[in-house]
Here is the input.
Amino acid sequence: MRPGIRHFIQFIGGPLRDISPVILVIVFFQLVVLRQPLPNLEALLTGLVFVVLGLALFIRGLEMGLFPLGEMMAEAFARKGSLSALLAFAFCLGFGTTVAEPALIAVAAEAAEIAGKGGGIGNSPEALNDYAFNLRLTVAVSVGVALVVGVFRILKGWPVHYLIIGGYLGVVILTLFAPPEIIGIAYDSGGVTTSTITVPLVTALGVGLAATIRGRNPMIDGFGLIAFASLTPILFVLVFGMVMH
Here is the structure.
């Protein structure tokens, strides 16, 4: 087998193996349970090829670009020794990657539409846009704050589980006082913030920073930033709902 063909098979083999369980489940329920042929088989196969190639290119791009970039910037900031610059970079990274997250935009727009129909806010386009924008801004700021806290934790060596437990205790307490209409949105906001761009950059930042600082273990101290990025939006959106309502 030629080296080019072998390399291509290895290139797409991993993504194809990863999505194969999903394919098997769909095919099984469609053919065995529903007992119906797959509709538009040609289009489905074409889409499957695009998914495999796209996933392979995305993973390769992470390995070549985002992971080295995050680790390089973390190492550069650590060597520079500027705490304010490092924390400012962490905040801007969290804010910038979250405010433009498509999933967050969709959730914020849907929340504004439902709030307008339910009478929670005005049903005019201006009121809906303001509500959706403020919700997005709140979540983006919360992720920026989360990365600042996470980076500071790595620098100080604080145990991550104490901060996570304390944060979720705060979530439980705020849930008791927040309007019922905002609780579900707040909990969903914690999930939509972890996007395909945020996760690799944030992970690389934490691991690179922990690997650079003496006395820090990348396996123990380098991970946990994603947990903060999922926790703080819940807190901030609950407070946002209490203020707005």
